[in-house]
Amino acid sequence: MTNSAHSLLTVAGDGIRSAGPVGSARTLRAVEEEGPEPRWTPISSDQLDGLLWRIEKEAGDGEIWVFAYGSLMWNPRFEIAATDDAVAFGWHRAFSLRIEWLRATSEAPGLMLALRQGGSCSGLILKLSHATQRQDLRTLLGREIRYADVCDVVRWITVRTQTGNRRALAFWACPRQSHLAENVPLEEAAGLIAQACGPAGSCAQYLQRTVLDLAERRIFDRNLWQLQRIVAAKLQALPAPINPA
After folding, report:
1. Residue 88: φ, ψ to 5°
2. Which terminal residue of the chain has fewer beta carbons within 10 Å of its beta carbon, N or C?
3. Is residue 243 part of a domain?
4. From CA 231, how far away is CA 223, in angstroms rounded?
5. What is the pTM of this model?
6. Quick one: three-class SS letters along the chain?
7. Has residue 242 been placed in a domain?
């Protein structure tokens, strides 16, 4: 953990500039693991294997590509055989998954990024390596789907690339199928993100990493830029951390 300052970004017209430093000490703190979130059933190894089998059957002998729109862009944690820019039409990214662990707690819940229907979403597609495809896919599913209640959040979507359309796996939020999904107004979302921190870090840190990565790739997401400006303002309004003598 570091107390160094980090810059969030703002957008002026079509340009990107620094919005000033936001100290990570204002968002990060030591938090003990609370265990699984209440009211949710952790996914079992057998259930994970069943989900893996279904996706492999649907993929057939074809390649498996994954649509990355958030942390998978800057922290995929699996071997990438190829990558390409992609746009998912009919989808948009939004902080709409309420969480009470990892980057939040039951006392200070937060929000994580998800894919919602409507609009368009620019990101990447990542190709799983054929040599490690089964192992990497199982690891990815275990990372993204921790509860049996939300096994339906993975699906195939069609994305557009420079060479044409391609089918890719995506992790999404469906209000009719998952109680985790919420359509949260930006001001409310910013308040949850600014307060939340868990054993894996803070929600503000996650937002920052995503915004910085999108900026480096010249991907402009208006809602995320507006959200990070509100979060930055809330964090800058907090009292400065007191350094121990």
Report:
1. -100, 105
2. C
3. no
4. 12
5. 0.83
6. CCCCEEEEEEEECCEEEEEEEEEHHHCCCCCCCCCCCCCCCECCHHHHHHHHHHHHHHHCCCCCEEEECCHHHHCCCCCEEEEEEEEEEEEEEEEEEEECCCCCCCCCCEEEEEEEEEEEEEEEEEEECCCCHHHHHHHHHHHHCCEHHHHHHEEEEEEEECCEEEEEEEEECCCCCCCCECCCCHHHHHHHHHHCEECCEEHHHHHHHHHHHHHHCCCCCHHHHHHHHHHHHHHHCCCCCCCCC
7. no
Residue 204 CA to residue 112 CA, distance in Å, equals 10
Provide the Cα torsion 187, 193, 194, 195; round to 10°.
Answer: 110
Query: So what's the pLDDT on residue 26?
Result: 53
Which CATH number fits the domain that encloses residue 121? 3.10.490.10
Is residue 205 situated within a structural domain? yes
The total of structural domains in the chain comes to: 1
To the nearest 10°, the Cα dihedral for 194, 97, 189, 185?
180
pLDDT per residue as tens digits for the range 60-116: 999 999 999 999 999 999 999 999 999 999 999 999 888 888 898 888 899 999 899
Residue 158, number of CB atoms within 10 A of its CB: 14
Domain ranges, residue 26: 5-236
Distance CA 66, CA 217 (A): 18
Q: Quick check: is 79 in a domain?
A: yes
Between CA 45 and CA 29 the distance in angstroms is 32
